[in-house]
Amino acid sequence: MKFFVDTAEISEIRELLPLGVVDGVTTNPSLIMKSGRDFREVVAEICELVDGPVSAEVTALEAAKMVEEGKSLAKIANNVTVKLPLTVDGLIACKALSSEGIDTNVTLCFSANQALLAAKAGATFISPFIGRLDDINIDGMDLIREIRMIYDNYDFRTEILAASIRSPNHVKDSAIAGADVATVPPKVLTSLAKHPLTDKGLEAFMADWEKTGQKII
Ligand code: E4P
Fold first, then answer.
1. Which of 83, 187, 200, 215 is flagged as catalytic?
2. How far apart are CA 140 and CA 71, in angstroms?
3. Which of 70, 142, 187, 201 is deepest in the core (most CB within 10 A)?
């Protein structure tokens, strides 16, 4: 499973890079707003830092304009993935951009039928929003399972990018359900390494080692 980092904060990405688990980055207009940075500038900086796909979202609502924005964003760097909303216009733009070899991430997916349409439109990634479904008492993980089954039935190449991840369990359950990628907020990503028994065990080993009076080097 690949991990993307769900952030537009350069410092957060830099901190995570040494872990060796960052396969890409996703941004959205809200994350850009939070960063307080210029959109194109921050996307260019992330693209230089990270080898993998970096999602940058269009803000037009009409297909032709989305295509224009998408082409312009794709020129920032060759690892830009154009993020498009799952609307009829977004799907039209997805078809047009993917036909020209531009990578796309169709976002704000909340149903299996929406995911089926995105795959038929040639999307590189589909982003089902798990957390936002959980927020309204619909099990987001069911959606990942449904999409996995449909894509496997028809051998669609579109990758399932589990989004709106809020907890370590979301990451684990997405992996079990067969998502290709999870885009994870930095805090959740680092918390995956933590376990209280690891901390307790390490504390005991260190205390016993201290008693030996030895040094390794
Ligand atoms: C990523 O592509 C999405 O924009 C993001 O995961 C949304 O997360 P949220 O529902 O926590 O805002």
1. 83
2. 32
3. 70
